[in-house]
Amino acid sequence: MSILLNRNRSAFIIMFFLSFSAISMAQKIDTISTFSITSYVDAYYAHYTDSAGPGNFQKFPTISPRSNSPSLNTAQIALQYNADKIRGMSVLHFGDIANCSWAPYPYNHLMEAHVGFKIYSKLWIDAGFFRTHFGTEFLLPSENITSSISVGTFYEPLFESGFRLNFDPTKKLEINIFLLNGYNMFADNNNKKSLGMGITYALGENSGIGYTNYIGDDTPPTDPVMHMRYHNNVFLNYQYKKLKLQIGGDYCIQQNSDLATGTKNAGMYSGLATAKYQWTVKFAIYGRGEIFSDPDGFMSTIITDLAGKKTGYKLTGCTLGTEYKPTEESYVRLEGRVLQMDNNQYIFYDNGSIYNHRYEIMINAGITFDLLKSVRTK
């Protein structure tokens, strides 16, 4: 076992430092190149009325997943290289996000690592481990209006591996096509490849629309029944003066996944609407409404409700928060959310009682900073 662990550690270190090899090679090819090392830290304190117990992660664990325990969402370091014909990125992360939401060991501390080559004007091919291309919201609090993510985002893929074809025909339009190992996985589980697409179009300087999808069958080899998944997402980002809006929705169909027969298609849908008002330069208020419906439980889980019916999760949620930004690169947020399950879906526990709703409150503090930034010209 010790030999195996040492081999995994060695492979991990080699993968991380491959980016430096790409840098050395690129410097011989390109006349202008940029290299940067950046870091991001987010710490939090949260309280949930759902009693998962000391040290345990709450249901839907992603951002601020521990209750009554000051902790760290993420501490990460990113190495990025960009030049005319080659580019690369490696990101390591540590903390609760890496432990509760990311890939299994030995990849749980590797957020992304990929290298790309220009094959034609404005056309690139990248290969390696990526953060997901899918969805309306991002993962990290620094990238989103809210600190928490919606339940719909929780069930979307967070990471992926494979090849990406990136094409930016104009300054407003970006097209990405993916060949992937699977849904929310770095390592393939069945030797079947999946497809993904992401298209974004800028409506203006601060507004844009987009469409993302995932098509694939991640059924384990031991299951003879196919479960082809068609997952679609559309979103709109819009900003006017001090007001910022984000609206998005998912619709997913999976073969042979209905609860009644197991031979028909099952469907899931989710949606969110988030608004932020920048009250002053440093203070803002925001809110989000969300809905998630997976009646056949193929994406969430299958439970037996209080009426004795087998079903998947159906819920709504409301989030309210305020943000203070001491500097452009930092923030402090106070946020509250309530999740309301369907009438008979009692899945939350509090002091020996069971409820179909949960209250949450969290305080997040984060900062992003540059450790190194250089430009080289030959």
Structure description:
With 378 residues, this protein is mainly β. The protein has a single domain (42-68, 117-367), classed as Porin (Beta Barrel), CATH 2.40.160. Helices cover 10% and strands 52% of the residues. The protein contains three helices and 20 strands. It has helices at 2-29, 96-100, 151-154; strands spanning 32-48, 71-83, 86-94, 110-120, 123-131, 159-167, 173-180, 194-202, 208-217, 228-240, 243-254, 266-277, 283-293, 303-304, 310-311, 314-324, 330-341, 348-350, 353-355, 357-377. A 16-stranded antiparallel barrel has the order 1-2-3-4-5-6-7-8-9-10-11-12-13-16-17-20. Strands 14-15 form a two-stranded antiparallel sheet. A hairpin with a 5-residue loop joins strand 16 and strand 17. The radius of gyration is 22 Å and the shape is globular. Residues 1-30 have low confidence and may be disordered.
